[in-house]
Amino acid sequence: xxxxxxxxxxxxxxxxxxxxxxxAITMRYFRSAxxxxxxxxxxxxxTPADRAVEEMARDKVAxxxxxxxxxxxxxxxAAVKPASNADRSRMIIDPIDGxxxxxxxxxxxxxxxxxxxxxxxxxAMVSAPGLRSRWWAYRxxxxxxxxxxxxxxxxxxxxxxxxxxxxxGPSKNAADQAKIRRLLDASRSSRSFGGFWQHMLxxxxxxxxxxxxxxxxxxxxxxxxxxxxxGGRSTNARGERTIYTGQLISTNGKIHDQVLELLE
Length: 264
Description:
Layout: H1 3-29, E1 38-39, E2 45-46, H2 48-64, E3 68-72, E4 76-77, E5 89-97, H3 99-103, E6 110-117, E7 120-128, E8 133-138, E9 143-145, E10 148-149, E11 162-165, H4 174-186, E12 189-192, H5 195-204, E13 209-212, H6 217-220, H7 223-229, E14 233-235, E15 248-251, H8 256-262
Parallel strand pairs: 3-5, 11-12, 11-13
Antiparallel strand pairs: 1-2, 3-4, 5-6, 6-7, 7-8, 8-9, 9-10, 13-15, 14-15
């Protein structure tokens, strides 16, 4: 059995099982009049649904028989830093990416799952029941949405591209804002949308670039591999393939260098 085939055989049952149950949990809470929304110390929202999904996922990992640690947004676990070659493989989970939207009845939320082996994401799944969509990728196997293979767009000039961005977050760093503004002005059109979906739209070929600027590893872990397996590129602003610097710039690959040049 090849290593690539092994990723599918090893992890697909676990990821699909978690995604199915996560969808059921989140949709039970979604648009509930009694949904309790709390604020964490950093000001971000958390709900009982976030905690229930992560607890369920951790339980499934524990019962899977796989040698996996877990790094999650709500319950911590493995260190929030790149794994070393000596570390065990781990699942990285954001139980609800877009909790703010979820808590307001907006359907652009999803459960984000990724498997990290030897500092590389090798398997990923994003499940968004409010959008009735699920995306996945296994290293070397391509990227898919609901069983349909994905491919990025063929646009090769930034001036013809659509760019999505989350902005720079609460710090409102003026220098970062100026860089992003240069990029948006150079594109054909832009939107401020954010979250996982903008990167999935790059993988689908609907838009050419998406930027996350101040995110945590669990916000980013499954996104890059899905874009890459669809033929695109995902890096930070320095061109490094990593989920640990807070930034993720996904493009169709053809305009990636043009994007990075404007973000210098």
